[in-house]
């Protein structure tokens, strides 16, 4: 009886173990490959409770490159029980030929058995007839900082390819711009006909020095029927990985003989202007719309400077709108465009001369400095009144006109009186409206500006911080033409804040493109506002109540 009980207990335990783990499978697909082919290590096991453990694949890195790791859980129904099948697929690329050991991999409390992968040298027939390879070329290989380098990646193949992906080279401290279209053509190399897929990229290095780009890589499936009596792998398709040569760039700093304030390396640069009105005579308070456009070939829009129109004058105010930038890569060349609108407002009568605008840039074709410029403009500002006559309207002559129309013998005195009274009433209305607006709007506007500046500094957004600071400066000095940070720096008596403004300018336009931190700038501006508020005279108290208790 005891033997029967023991056998029954063993059967029950075996049944429980079988129900706990129905299957455990580890295999390679395929088990024999050629150099440059990708094998797949598949791990599967069933369990009542789904649990995808993290795999320690570091043991594979000695002989293999880990291409990809995928995992999934599927449900299985066997009888009245539901099981979960856990599956991992690890794509591995051998680093050498020969018989390679795939070591054990642990997951949870389990461990896979060791497997072997045979990496066979390709047969001579395959080498002589079928090829897939990738090349990469850079032009130029010694660019300046911020200069475009054209990277051409070509995939050559005389075999049908499927489900492939082609990656571009890259490195730290660089920016990649992609071209929408790619070229496909046929080329003969070493007497063989190849289908060629060419993709061009524009790479911009942000720091000088030597840069080694990662190779371009193609991964896909080759549909190739192989195999023969010699024991080579006979598969209808193979997963392959092909890498290009590594590219090395020697990035140069801007030349010392360059005299411009903004480093602009380009093959061609154009600067143009357009006016919203062709009038050369304005009245005080009237404005002109002025638009500046810069188009640079071989240079990204992020490198183009904004806020170029600045003029310190009591007769003129210039307000710059937020610039718009766009960069496109077509025809193998970057084309950067910047457009910015300015409002030019006449503040006092007289003759105003807008200076010529000059922008030095560096011609990378001739390796020399060039100058782009646009002509200035002369504007005459008049304060004449277009009402009864051309005499300037002042309180004194307004009173004289009123008396003349009331007691004079001119038969047209009543129409004239109507014009003057209407003008006086309209002037009073404008003054009252301006006074009410001045009392109601400064506080919310000031709060909005502070919020904008705080958000920009906390996000370390240099462009947004510059825009908020210019608005802050215009509110603080309403009669001054504030169009740049340097104009704010000249009007403050805080050397430390002036240095922070200079650092912000450097972060926006300097070739180094250093990481800007806005915390210190926000603290200094806040402290300056507090000192200004504390130095203002205390507001007058409210008038006494008419009927005090």
Q: Write down the CATH topology of the largest domain.
A: Immunoglobulin-like
Mean pLDDT: 77
Spans of at least 5 consecutive residues with low confidence: 1-23, 226-235, 385-394, 538-549
Tell me the span between the first and last alpha carbons. Answer: 111 Å
CATH class of the largest domain: Mainly Beta
Secondary-structure-based class equals alpha+beta
Dominant shape? elongated
Known CATH architecture of the largest domain: Sandwich
Beta-strand residue percentage:
35-45%
* Count of distinct strands: 30
CA-based gyration radius: 38 Å
- Number of helical stretches of at least 4 residues: 9
Q: Assign a percent range to the helix content.
A: 10-25%
Largest sheet: 5 strands, antiparallel
Number of domains: 5
List the helices and strands and how they pair.
Elements: H1 2-20, E1 24-29, E2 32-33, E3 39-47, E4 64-78, E5 81-94, E6 98-102, E7 106-107, E8 110-111, E9 115-119, H2 124-129, E10 132-139, E11 148-157, E12 161-167, E13 174-178, E14 183-189, E15 192-205, E16 209-213, E17 217-223, E18 237-243, E19 247-251, E20 265-266, E21 268-275, E22 281-283, E23 287-297, E24 316-320, E25 324-330, E26 333-346, E27 350-354, E28 357-363, E29 368-374, E30 377-382, H3 395-407, H4 413-440, H5 442-458, H6 462-476, H7 485-491, H8 495-509, H9 519-535
Parallel strand pairs: 2-9, 20-28, 22-30
Antiparallel strand pairs: 1-3, 3-5, 4-5, 6-9, 7-8, 10-11, 11-15, 12-17, 13-15, 14-15, 16-19, 17-18, 21-23, 23-26, 24-26, 25-26, 27-30, 28-29
Helix pairs in contact: 3-4, 5-6, 6-8, 7-8, 8-9
């Amino acid at each position: 009886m005891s033997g029967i009980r023991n056998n029954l207990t063993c059967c029950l335990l075996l049944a429980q173990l079988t129900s706990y783990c129905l299957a455990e499978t580890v295999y390679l697909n395929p088990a024999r490959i050629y150099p440059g082919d990708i094998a797949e290590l598949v791990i599967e096991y069933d369990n009542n409770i789904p649990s995808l453990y993290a795999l320690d694949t570091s043991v594979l890195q000695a002989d293999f490159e880990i291409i990809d790791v995928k995992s999934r859980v599927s449900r299985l129904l066997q009888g009245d029980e539901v099981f979960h099948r856990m599956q991992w697929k690890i794509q591995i690329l051998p680093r050498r030929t020969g018989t390679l050991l795939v070591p054990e991999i642990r997951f949870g409390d389990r461990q896979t058995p060791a497997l072997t992968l045979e990496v066979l040298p390709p047969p001579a027939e395959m080498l002589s007839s079928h090829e897939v390879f990738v090349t990469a070329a850079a032009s130029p290989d010694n660019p300046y900082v911020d200069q475009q380098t054209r990277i051409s990646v070509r995939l050559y193949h005389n075999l049908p390819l499927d489900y492939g992906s082609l990656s571009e080279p890259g490195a730290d401290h660089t920016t990649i711009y992609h071209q929408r279209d790619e070229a496909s053509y046929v080329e003969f190399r070493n007497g063989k006909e190849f289908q060629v897929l060419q993709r061009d990229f524009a790479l911009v290095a942000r720091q000088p020095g030597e840069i080694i780009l990662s190779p371009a890589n193609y991964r896909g499936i080759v549909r190739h029927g192989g195999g023969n009596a010699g024991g080579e792998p006979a598969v209808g398709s193979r997963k392959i990985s092909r890498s290009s040569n590594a590219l090395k760039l020697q990035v140069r700093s801007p030349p010392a003989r360059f005299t411009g304030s903004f480093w602009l390396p380009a093959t061609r640069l154009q600067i143009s202007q357009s006016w919203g009105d062709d009038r050369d005579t304005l009245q005080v308070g009237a404005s002109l719309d002025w638009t500046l456009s810069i188009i640079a070939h071989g240079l990204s829009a992020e490198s183009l400077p904004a806020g170029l129109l600045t003029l310190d004058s009591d007769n003129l105010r210039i307000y710059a709108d937020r610039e718009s930038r766009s960069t496109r890569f077509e025809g193998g060349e970057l084309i950067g465009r910047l457009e910015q609108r300015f409002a030019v407002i006449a503040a006092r009568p007289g003759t105003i001369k807008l200076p010529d605008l000059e922008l030095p840039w560096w011609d990378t074709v001739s390796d020399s400095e060039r100058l782009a410029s646009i002509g200035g403009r002369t504007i005459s500002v008049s304060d004449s009144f277009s009402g009864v006559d051309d005499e300037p309207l002042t309180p004194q002559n307004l009173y004289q006109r009123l008396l003349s129309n009331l007691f004079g013998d001119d038969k047209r005195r009543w129409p004239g009186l109507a014009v003057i009274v209407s003008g006086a009433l309209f002037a009073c209305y404008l003054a009252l409206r301006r006074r009410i607006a001045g009392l109601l709007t400064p506080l919310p506007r000031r709060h909005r500006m502070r919020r904008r500046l705080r958000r920009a500094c906390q996000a370390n957004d240099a462009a947004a911080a510059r825009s908020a600071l210019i608005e802050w400066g215009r509110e603080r000095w309403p009669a001054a033409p504030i169009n740049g940070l340097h104009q704010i720096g000249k009007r403050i008596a805080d050397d430390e804040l002036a240095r922070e403004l200079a650092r912000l300018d450097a972060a926006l336009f300097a070739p180094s493109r250093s990481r800007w931190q806005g915390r210190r700038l926000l603290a200094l501006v806040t402290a300056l506002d507090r000192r200004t508020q504390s130095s203002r005279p205390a507001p007058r108290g409210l008038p006494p109540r008419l009927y005090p208790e």
